[in-house]
Amino acid sequence: MQPLSGTVQRYAWGTHDAIPALLGRPTDGQPIAEYWLGAHSSSPSLLEGGTLVEHIASGPRVLGKRSREAFGEQLPYLMKLLSARHALSLQAHPSREQAIDGFARETRAGIPLDSPERTYKDSWPKPEILIALDEFHTLAGFRNPHETAALFAGLGVAEELESVIGPLTERKGPAAMAEVFLDVLSLDEPRRRLVNETVAAAMHHRDDGGEVGEFARTALELDAVFPADPGILAALLMNRLLLAPGEALFVPAGMMHAHLRGTGVEIMANSDNVIRGGLTSKHIDVSELVAVVDFDPWLPEVLLPRQTRRGVFKYETPCSEFEAWQMSVDSETGPVRVPGRGSARILLVTEGHCLLDDGHSRLELPRGRAAFLSAEERDVYASGTATLYGTSSGIR
């Protein structure tokens, strides 16, 4: 058991105070969007005496036998704190096969890893789960096309947008959604007036109740950050979800999504592969969007954790790269054994104060502190009064 110090990522969309407050640090007036806990090569976390990447390289047995057999001698997951004050870009992530093929293809083409034209930074997929720590707003998956057409009609702009959104109701299947989405992203200058007309119409409905009011407020929220961006119309094709604290959203390969605002714990495969689809000044690879994105309309499920034993609650996902779980310890539960035996684990305390004990040594973890546990540390118990989030390989 070792204390683990994460790395701060400063992106413009981050909040200024949420992550510092959780970590018990003063704010510095600059946005802090993410706090990484893991062994990603671009920003590895720190242990006493070096980085987590160096620690694993010096003794890969800490990962666990089955994890090494499946993923090689690298940590297969990454844990983050994420805190957004406004919308991120529309994005999706590739499957393992798509990532392997895309990374090899761009490498053969000689595209540098740091090039803005590079889509695949590594050969890994990036399935992820976002667990809300406060009220968290996000866009995820494509809404039923007839419902979307009705919402545009509710704003009073269905006729003006007919040339763009017509296929939603005139055609069936994901091809119609893909046609509309890609057409929106390629709006020429004369047709960009459609974005302003939609936003102007939304102003008249911003105080409405029900789905039309929420639809209008989403348009205005996005326009405040990305004024007149065609990506606003693309985003309005998607479901808006509200996660309460403790609720989660699993993002599989191919699902278009965009987090809007809120703070949460994010756990993902150890990758930086992002296929962007709007609301960004960065490179958009349209051909890769078509290949990767799932344009089938569906409403993602909001997940709640399932109690597996006393004090341990697991978020069910189909991933082999990671498991995600919450631990709740107090005087009633008594010491709770940390899940993930046989795998390297990362723990983060988000509330209270925790004591880890493996029978040989102890580690105090107050709020905002994290720890790395090796696969060889099998029976580790947590006690105190605390809420922790943790992850391990999904293969042990």
Structure report:
By secondary structure, the chain is an alpha+beta fold. Among the domains are: 1-6 and 31-78 and 305-396, Sandwich (Jelly Rolls), CATH 2.60.120.10; 144-236. 26% of the residues lie in helices and 29% in strands. It is built from twelve helices and 22 strands. The chain has helices at residues 18-23, 52-58, 65-71, 96-108, 145-155, 162-165, 167-170, 174-185, 193-203, 210-225, 231-235, 286-292; strands at 2-4, 7-9, 34-38, 46-47, 50-51, 77-84, 91-92, 128-132, 136-142, 238-243, 248-251, 257-269, 275-276, 302-303, 306-309, 312-315, 323-329, 336-337, 345-357, 362-366, 370-373, 381-392. Strands 1, 15, 16, 17, 18, 19, 20, 21 and 22 form a nine-stranded antiparallel sheet that branches. Strands 2, 3, 6, 8, 9, 10, 11, 12 and 14 form a nine-stranded antiparallel sheet that branches. A two-stranded antiparallel sheet has the order 4-5. The two termini are 18 Å apart.
Keywords:
396 residues; 12 helices; alpha+beta; Jelly Rolls; single chain; nine-stranded antiparallel sheet
Figure out the total of helices. Answer: 12
Number of strands: 22
Distance N to C terminus: 18 Å
Report the biggest beta sheet as strand number plus sense, adding barrel if it closes.
Answer: 9 strands, antiparallel
Q: What top-tier CATH class of the domain at 1-6 and 31-78 and 305-396 fits best?
A: Mainly Beta
| Overall outline | globular
Structural class: alpha+beta
**Range of strand content:** 25-35%
CATH architecture of the domain at 1-6 and 31-78 and 305-396: Sandwich
Q: Residue share in helices?
A: 25-40%
